[in-house]
Amino acid sequence: MKYVMVFFFLVLSILSCRKNKKDLINNKIIYNELIREAKQFYRLNDYSKAADKYEKAFKLIGGINNTKDGYNAARSFVLAGDNEKSFNCLFELTKSELNYDSYDYIISDTIFKPLHRSTLWNNLISKIKDNKEKNEKNYDKLLVALFDTIFNEDQKYRKSIDSIKNKFGMYSPQLKKHWETIHRRDSINWKKVKMILDEYGWLGKDKIGKQGNNTLFLVLQHADIDSQIKYLPMMKNAVRKGNAKPTHLALLEDRVSIKLKNKQIYGSQLMSKPDGSYYVLPIINPENVDRRRAEIGLNNMADYLSNWNMTWSVSQHLKMIDSIERKKNDIDFK
């Protein structure tokens, strides 16, 4: 009888674990769908609905569990006119579990200007600055400061792209001039980063922090093709050592492939159409792209493309590739 009872409780325990695991998976699926919907509403400027979706997503999993979603939720709340909930999100990000420390980024984010009038803003910024200083205790301070400046220069003008495009149009002289400014800044930033790479190699976040490490990738991603080809092996080696993200390497590999007029591997590179919509540039074996993306930690194509309100269809993508190839053959033949 004793052994029967032990076996019975063992079976119950296994079944309970399976149920809990299944519930966690289901909650994760629902959470991802809510976040996807929140992003869609945000792009449509329906900030109240975006904020509502974020709130439901966080409630489902018991709170904010990553800085990206929490930060985007805070932006949605403030744009929806709910400063209190925006502050709640931002203060949640400063706690030890998430340890948000992007001081330079948040103070330059104009979306949060309505919060600046509150005394809570100074308290918030003080906490973020404290996190930044604690995290940077063992960093190379001079390099961290330099990368902070480079990061802000890289992102400052890019933050205005959407507003200029919405106001004047994708092919307007204003947006063209703005892109010329961005390319000039990219060239200046690359010269600085190139000197660092040549002297120190690809530095990890243990030396220059998460933002500094991300900045290395961003600036190389925005550099000329010859530089990207030259420093791609260095980044691959950095990934093997844990000093660079596999997801960042995938994005750079795709960009290089497309610039060399080859098919991309992970489907990260898009092209705009005259009407302002986008399409995915040709992918090698698109039937297996989601498997390749999953192997390096990227979300699937359907979730990725939802950021541009697009849908993913392997069959449609294959048709597009076939159309491009036929047009190319016609041109070559002529």
What coarse outline follows from CA principal-axis ratios? globular
**Share of residues in helices:** over 70%
Percentage of β-strand residues: under 5%
Number of DSSP E strands? 2
User: How many separate domains make up the residues?
Assistant: 3
Query: Low-confidence segments, ≥5 residues, pLDDT <50?
Result: none
Structural class: mainly alpha
The ordered string of helix (H) and strand (E) elements is HHHHHHHHHHHHEEHHH
In DSSP terms (H or I, runs of 4 or more residues), the helix count works out at: 15
Distance between the termini: 86 Å
Main beta-sheet strand count, sense and barrel state: 2 strands, antiparallel
Radius of gyration: 23 Å
Q: Which sequence of strands runs across the widest sheet? A: 1-2
Task: Give a written overview of the molecule.
This protein has 334 residues and is mainly alpha-helical. Helix content is 70%, strand content 2%. It has a two-stranded antiparallel sheet. A hairpin with a 5-residue loop joins β1 and β2. α1 (2-43) runs antiparallel to α2, α3 (67-79) runs antiparallel to α4 and α11 (225-241) runs antiparallel to α12. The protein is globular and about 60 Å long.
